[in-house]
Amino acid sequence: MKMKRMLIVAVYLMGSLLVANAQHTNMHRFRKPMQKESSVTDKETQFVRHLMQKMTLAEKIGQLSQYVGGELLTGPQSGALSDSLFVHGMVGSILNVGGVEKLRSLQEKNMRLSRLKIPLLFGFDVVHGYKTIFPTPLAESCSWDLNLIFKTAKAAAIEASASGIHWTFAPMVDMARDPRWGRIVEGAGEDTYLACKIAAARVRGFQWNLGSPNAVMACAKHFAAYGAPQSGRDYAPVDLSLSTLAEVYLPPFKACVDAGVQTFMSAFNSLNGIPATGNRWLLTDLLRKQWDFRGFVVSDWNAVQELKAHGVAETDEDAALLALKAGVDMDMTDGVYNRCLATAVREGRLDVSTIDVSVEHILRAKYALGLFNDPYCFLDSTRERREVRSEALNVLARKTAASSMVLLKNNAAVLPLSKQIHRIALVGPLANNRDEVMGSWKARGEARDVVTVMEGIQQKLGSEGSIDYVQGCDFSSPCTQAFSAAFNAAKQSDVVIAVVGEEALMSGESRSRAVLRLPGRQEALLDTLRKAGKPLVVVLMNGRPLCLEKVDTLADALLEAWFPGTQGGHAVADILFGDAIPAAKLTTSFPLTEGQIPNYYNYKRSGRPGDMPYSSTVRHIDVPNRNLYPFGYGLSYTTFSYGKMQCPKQFLADGTLRVSIDVTNTGRFDGEEIVQLYVADKVASMVRPVKELKGFQKLFIAKGQTQRVDFILNVRDLGFYDNQMHYVVEPGTFEIMVGSDSETLQKQSVVWRGKALFHSVK
Predict the structure, then answer these.
(1) Are 212 and 370 in contact (CB under 8 A)?
(2) pLDDT in the model for residue 41
(3) Strands 466-470 and 423-427
(4) Which residues contact 561 (CB under 8 A, 6 or more apart)?
């Protein structure tokens, strides 16, 4: 077949043939001072540069140094925070301390002991809430509700800032297509288009009122490609084609820049042989020069010193120079900048101007937060008492948790349950658990604030029904002694609710898993409960997709509740009893078995597709070519029917295409439906995915009502990155698909015959 004529529409992201070797050629150059961002008459510029003129070399380097406050360690303990460091002005930021009283004490010490009284910057991992814990980010992404995601980030910012926090190390926008990687729990699933939308919403939420003491600086992490390690093992090397890097892994970070994110965090991993923390091409050439990022970059925990373990630096000084010259402005926890940079200047290995660039970035951030006007402006104990754990936050947390739960199975309409039900057997290690249901990265969330599933159901039933609770088993013990009690409770019940899943720290950083079944004896417990012959409702709480083929055969109803947060028990009860109608849909595929991984929906075509009618195809001989639950899948208590998709046979001359479809609520309940639009490029100069999400709408439809859904596609959004990292769109035939999930779709072929368009995405 004759190849279609390629039309370069945009040069996006990295943009030149030099990319292939730029990592090596640019690695050891000194950074030039950043171009002036404003006139020297600008108050901020005048203030910052006047201050820098007063600073000693040690004080400048100190601004580039972040220390852990001792409350929470998220890596090996390294550089120690001491009064001597404060005296010499060698502390720029402190992380992982929260609470007005503690932070005021630290700020007062800094202002008392340091010569220039430059305020400290306080950072914390506020990933999905601070004291009020919302569902984990992967869970929340399943709501497909960008406004709700904005609201929870804003709420977390208000609560954290009321406790003295200036800066959150979130959102994590790493694309993760391998559920073995534990940090998939912190992301937005496997689709880049959706991840970009969610990343921007979270940045805008955290920074909703930046410059006032009720918002925090966001941090896009981990730059870049941290979510694609070998075998899903955290911190492992990443090797990607340049086209895949540009098309899949970089766009969410660019979306953060476009949303105004103030900080970036470098990644632990190496990328195509160059550690991200020492990668000048990534942190300077791409991030600053091409994307025009104006904030500052912080390393991850101890990552500068770990350049030695990568084998690209021999000494601490080598590591410090490599990271700083690459574009890492602030060194997190290991203290190597403070220990090494001054010596490097004296020995002529480092020019002070390189340090000055980073100092200016950090001082500007402190100025923008208002800390130079009032170092204590975030430290208001009255506001802390008013905002932290407020009732409004609890209401939002409950709504968000329910909106994030995905109904995977509901045979014979077992759910919703009647509130007049007489007897419930409640079983499982998470049924009455407070500690685990918050998930990983729970910030300062406390077990005493958690509503358990048992408490949620009790409140829902009141005095009308009884609950027989049996834990049955824990997460790791082989003991089955309590199985008989669980069976007896099930036998005497009207319905069995089993709440099973992972411990919180089975997902998260350094929590890679090779086996993705329910841990311990939980599957065996479900098998025992099944034998009681009563309706079995399984509620899952976990941080990643699990392999649930056996669980699916045992359960009558299956609800993926994820780690739902402090209001999780109420939210689970709301869903089980129909006070909230499930509407969430998966943002990550659930495989049949671990051997299929990675098994994301938008895989690329091959010459022998798996659906061909003979055996020599892309397949495993022992498992079907499908996921147990596909991307975009989720059930409701009501039903929706889709009319015939309507769209022209070709794009308009301006490159647009209107796609319309009628959706009718044909069930017994009002409900929400997430209508999804996918596109496939039928013939291209490079192998393309079988389909790609390009639009979605979440809409409320009352029972018996019909709504028209309209999408506007533009051909400029249908391109791809070639291996020179040029963005190209090629004319030809595209398949347009609309439906309820990535596998239940109507299809129509549409042609674009337009002329060449040149459009800079940047």
Answers:
(1) yes
(2) 59
(3) parallel
(4) 139, 401, 405, 539, 540, 541, 568, 571, 572, 575
Q: Check residue 282 and report its DSSP letter.
A: I
For residue 361, the SS3 value is helix
Top-level class of domain 401-596: alpha beta
663/673 Cα distance (integer angstroms): 9
Calculate the alpha carbon distances from 579 to 24, 536, 556, 573 in Å.
58, 20, 20, 8
Top pLDDT among 134 and 621 is at: 134
Instruction: Burial-class residue 621 by CB neighbours within 10 Å (0-12, 13-18, 19+).
Output: exposed
Tokens of 757: 């368009």
Active-site entry in 300, 318, 380, 741:
300
3-state secondary structure of 364: helix
How would you label 722-746 residue by residue, b for 16+ Cβ within 10 Å and e otherwise? bebbbbbbbbeebbbbbbbbbeebe
Instruction: Record the pTM.
Output: 0.93
CA 2 and chain centroid, separation: 41
pLDDT of residue 78: 53
DSSP, residue by residue, 454-471: HHHHHHHHTTSSEEEEE-
User: Which residues face 131 on adjacent strands?
Assistant: none
**Non-local CB neighbours of 55 within 8 Å, separated by 6+ positions:** 63, 89, 116, 359
Mean pLDDT value of segment 690-703: 98
CA–CA separation, 141 and 275 (whole Å): 29
Per the annotation, the verdict on 527 as an active-site residue is: no
The CB density around residue 36, as the number of other CB atoms within 10 Å, is 9
Which residue spans of the chain are classified as CATH 3.20.20.300? 57-383
Q: What is the CATH number of domain 638-752?
A: 2.60.40.10
Indicate the residue type of 238: V
CATH 3.20.20.300 fits 57-383, yes or no: yes
| 285 CB neighbour count, 10 Å cutoff | 23
Distance CA 729, CA 304 (A): 40
Arithmetic mean of pLDDT over the chain: 92
d(CA 89, CA 66): 12
The number of beta carbons lying within 10 Å of the beta carbon of residue 392 is 11
Residue 111 has pLDDT above 90, yes or no: yes
CA nearest neighbour of 299 among 318, 281, 272, 322 = 322
Distance between alpha carbon 752 and the CA centroid of its chain, in Å?
A: 35
> Is residue 757 within 8 Å of residue 7, measured between CB atoms?
yes
For the chain, residues classed under CATH 3.40.50.1700 are 401-596
Q: Which of 556, 532, 627 is nearest to 586 (CA)?
A: 627
Amino acid at 226: Y
Region(s) of the chain under CATH 2.60.40.10? 638-752
